[in-house]
Amino acid sequence: MAEPIRTTCPYCGTGCGVLAEKSEAGWTVRGDPDHPANFGRLCSKGAALGDTLGLETRLLHPLIGGQRVSWGEAIGAVAEGLAATIAAEGPGAVALYLSGQLLTEDYYAANKLAKGFLGTANVDTNSRLCMASAVAGHRRAFGADTVPGCYADLEEADLVVIVGSNLAWCHPVLFQRLAAAREARGTRVVVIDPRRTETCDLADLHLALAPGSDVALFNGLLAYLGASDAIDRGFVEGWTTGYAESVAAAWADAPSAAAVTGIPAADLVRFYEWFAATPKTVTLFSQGVNQSSAGTDKVNAILNAHLATGRIGRPGMGPFSLTGQPNAMGGREVGGLANQLAAHMDFAPGNCDRLRRFWNAPAVAEAEGLKAVDLFQAIGAGKVEAVWIMGTNPAVSLPEADAVRKALARCPLVIASDCVADTDTMRLAHIRLPALGWGEKSGTVTNSERTISRQRPFLPPPGEARADWWMVAEVAKAMGFEAGFAWEGPGGIFREHARLSAFENEGRRDFDIGAAADADYDALTPFQWGERRMFADGGFFTPDGRARLIPVRHRPPVAVRSAHYPFRLNTGRYRDQWHTMTRTGLSARLSGHRREPLIEIHPSDAAEAGLADGALVRVESRHGGYVGRLHATPAQRRGDLFLPMHWNDCFAASALAGRLLSAHTDPISGQPESKHEAVRVTAFAPVFEGVLIAGAGLALPGIPWWVRHKTAGAEAVELAGDREEQAAALLAALDGHFGTPLTFRDPARGVARFAWMEGERLRAVLFLASDGRPEPARSWLAGFIGQELAAPLERAQILAGLAPAGAPGAGPILCACFSVAAATIAQAIAEGKLTSVAAIGAALKAGTGCGSCIPEIRGMLKVSA
Question: Rounded CA gap, 580 and 50, in Å?
């Protein structure tokens, strides 16, 4: 067997190392035991990467207007379209919208072309949606976008505060590192989150604050620290400014902190006492802090507490921003945000001149460009006439998604480079460029602790797919900029990027990887830029070298609840899905845990609204609607709803979270408020529900609610309608596609079953129920799609939808790493055979992979006790 390929996982900002290995059965992946981010651990998504390498959904050739063209034609059309737009409307009419899925070399090339040679700073990224507030907070406090700590601090801290992060689901490997440290040394954990998430499984204290009240909570903490003499006076006086003003602002909020947050005063005081008494404290924060109209102030409220106590830059202490994407940090390093230039430089005249000289660039942009939400509003207003979208799906991920779609539909030139043929955004593109995917790309990524790792290819380029940096370079050459883009490969781009970071730096800028410019790129091993921990001895990147405490005051979210929209909506991630599901949606085991999006509500709220657990409901805001299945759970605060962000029009009929959200943004960071929207929830009232199991991609005309999910060897579609004629139209469409079905109807039970055959080969099955939801054994049935059914008994069993004993059942998968069903675990617990997490792991392997299912297993054990 050949040596495994060392590469990096393409999911969250943890940046786990991966070993890809070829066997007779195909490519498999496992964690790299030598990588400093994960030491061999992988989450369920990383462990399932081998399931997502197929080409069935790939874009393999350039397209213009839906017609296949050569690369020469495609590059020429892009270059001519950009040049014509600039000639007619100026460089401000051109924009690039990038992605934390890009490698650093792709990001660098795109920013160099736009900000150096086209003269537009309208270059932003989907990372604006997840960590822009952290960037803005860092720059205000430290003078640079510097994450001070490292992952090892989680294992050396005595207190870890987790704010606005379901760490167990969103960064499972870090969650397991923390869980191991807590087991070994008794680390105390506080979770601050409106919801009681799986992360609370580790919590000594859960503070279920009202959404948007983080500033009030941390201002109360800063006031308490000052009053209890927990301030590090030497650090404050020697290395900071703004302390007095910040404490005064904190005292203005402190008296109302309990009322504003909705947290009992005794719990607040307990947290404040623990923080004051524990020097070795780490505060982890993520999207629940950043995705807010006050996100930057929330970040600075957290940083204020650490700066006032000197808890920064030393082992086991510091504020720590967790990024959501694999290369959000790399994008920040090369100027992937509209308000930054490359190498962590801003638009100060000296920086613009430095970049102009280094790049020998004719048209360096000299002012900030449009941030993501403003950018797409400008497209809608006709101020931006050409946009190149790389590796992202803004028609799904941005707020007011229908307005974004209208903007792209009216834009004269939409270019999209992606590895996926069909996304909500691709459907609106005039020019579609096939990009390399994970396993094919070569470059670097930077994780949340500033560690740069190589992402190496182990698969050949499929079809005519090309690297994103190559597309950018070819367009640049076609526009006459060949000298600046004559790279032979990504290694050349990396070396240029490294040299720029050191160019005229002399310690004035935090980001400097000049020492790596001459390294062997192919053999590059993971390395962390900067010091292991930053700022232990001051030395901030402000003009006076001092950190700034920023006076901040609580202000509520923009969206206001009313009698018409009485609920607050929060959105977030699921454990086994990623972004808009273009990769994870290909894996049956990743679709098994949550096969459809659930709308979570407190049981008392559901009862008062007359809504049943498990029923289909409609959620509406001022901007749009969403249909999903209700899940009543006491983990929700009263008055709050939660739904996932992943589903879209390619995977569901009416489950796009972005349609509900307002485009309210933080005034400093430009990050949209994705965690707070005023909505109402009402019954959907279907007259039938069903399950269709067939090959992928079938159209479902006129069905108002459906959700696709991958299952073994086929695709299952959950569906429902609110009129009888919708079922008749669906059957007619399936008959037209497959022919006449075998049919069994049971009017007494309100059940109808259909099976379409091609000779002896099963092509599709459909189960419809007029009273409730049919629950055929989906995984078992899917295994027969495309197979010959010679025996009448097999046909009868399939029409019954009942699996024989021991066959895969209908229920959800609890452990995605080892495909262990929840029902299997529940049965073992009920029989009294397994009475602990360890016993379940030993017998069934559940929980022994990434461990993110352990909180749910513990919950099942508690219920049975």
Answer: 19
CB 435 within 8 A of CB 416: no
> Which own/partner contact pairs does 382-385 have at CB distance under 8 Å and 24+ positions apart?
382/410, 383/92, 383/93, 384/92, 384/93, 384/94, 384/95, 384/122, 384/411, 385/85, 385/88, 385/89, 385/93, 385/94, 385/411, 385/412, 385/413
* CATH class of domain segment(s) 5-52: alpha beta
What is the Cα–Cα distance from 51 to 540, expressed in whole angstroms? 45
Amino acid occupying residue 778: R
Which pair of structure tokens corresponds to residue 525? 């091993």
The values of phi and psi at residue 302, to 5°, are -70, -50
- CATH number given to 813-864: 1.10.10.1100
φ, ψ for residue 319, nearest 5 deg: -80, 145
**pLDDT per residue over 83-141, tens digit each?**
999 999 999 999 999 999 999 999 999 999 999 999 999 999 999 999 999 999 999 99
Q: Of the ranges 250-264, 446-460, 655-669, 752-766, which one carries the lowest mean pLDDT score?
A: 752-766
The DSSP string of 257-283 is HHHHHT--HHHHHHHHHHHHH-SSEEE
Query: What's the topology of domain 63-130+327-528?
Result: Rossmann fold (3.40.50)
Q: How far is CA 766 from CA 308, 707, 756, 770, in A?
A: 63, 14, 9, 13
The pLDDT tens digits of the residues spanning 186-226 come to 999 999 999 999 999 999 999 999 999 999 999 999 999 99
- Outline where 382-521 has alpha helix (H): 394-397, 401-410, 468-478, 490-502
**C-beta separation of 153 from 318 below 8 A:** yes
Q: Is the pLDDT of residue 1 over 60?
A: no
Could you tell me the residue ranges of all domains in the chain?
5-52, 63-130+327-528, 132-321, 567-683, 688-800, 813-864
3-state secondary structure of 541: coil
Q: DSSP character for 563?
A: S
